Amino acid sequence: MTKLTTRLKGAVAVGLICASPALATDVEVLHWWTSGGEAAALNVLKADLNGQGVGWQDMPIAGGGGSDAMTVLRARVTAGDPPTAVQMLGFAIQDWASEGALADLSALATEQGWDDVVPAALQGFSKNDGKWVAAPVNVHSTNWVWANTALMAELGITQPANWGEFVAAMQKVKDAGHVALAHGGQAWQDATVFDSMVMGVGGPEFYKTAFIDLDPDALGSANMVEAFKRMETLRGFVDDNFSGRDWNLASAMVANGEALFQIMGDWAKGEFVNAGQTAGVEFQCFRVPGTEGTVTFNSDQFAMFKVGDEGAMAAQMTMASAVMSPVFQVAFNTVKGSVPSRTDISDEAFDACGKLGMAQLSEASASGKLFGSMAHGHANNPSVQNAMYDVITGHFNGEYDAETAAAELVTAVELAQ
Ligand code: BGC
To answer: Which of 81, 196, 238, 353 is placed for a possible disulfide with 242 were both Cys, Cβ 3.0 to 4.6 Å?
Structure first.
């Protein structure tokens, strides 16, 4: 039986069983929110939509940064069967919009005044050719360290003020027989850490020139070599079982005191909160030493694929509207670990790390120190991003030394453009 016949039969069966065809008011959502904290945040959205009569068909594809989800998406679209709503990051949104695949949300955006409340840095990704093509649900940032408070106290470690102190602290943990750095050896996690190494070594101008402008001199520079050397230093502080470990399992190592630190985006906070922990009590958050004052951000957005069915279109608009609602933004982001994608939301309901994140986001934005995360699709297009992933992870796993890695980065980026 062909896929189409199966579908038609399924649709007939649904029509026979249900008086009203439920499918037209569903959204099928492709996303990569599969950890405990992520699922808890997703449930906030599901419940909101259910309350408005919109059903949810789940299409989860694990993997931070969304590369795997984007591969599945491409296959679905090629087969002529796109999901109705898709979690997307930065440049991927622009690529799909340029292909003409995304629904225009501008009427809703105008009615609800999105232009006035969504920060310009996000609008650059949510809009294409002057039209709103995605609804930003949050702002995450990648240059965070998560730390276990009790283990810090036990080892007499205070928040490191610079890279040297951070390394010294990790050495102390290692000497005491604990895991200094919880990490999962997956390309996107290596790249997430690398965002902060590049920012920490070279500062915002260098980060921009290398990752956003893709200047070959910057990509192959002494600063880049130094950033790779810092990765080697970190490699010396991860445990033997790091390879392939999921990021949320690394967060759990910090939560349960097996490890002291994790360098990860603030979705890690969602894991701590989901485990019943409180920011500033059981766990601490601070910016990766050397990156203070800067923020490398990514924003999860929902893009709606063009569909013919009016019921499905209405469900898409309900979802976009829900995502942008101020009440929802608080309910969702306090669980997700991210901060709101609207500037008109009070930080009152947010915990200590959330308040810090909101304040630092607006300060970095005002002082020109807010840049898109390379690891999470906000610095360059997906093919360049994936080319960078390969070099960074190859180096982290000992394939190249730091000098060779910087040279490889130049070549890989040139070929990917
Ligand atoms: C997304 C986050 C997600 C993380 C880990 C990032 O790319 O922006 O929302 O929690 O990956 O899955």
So the answer is: 238
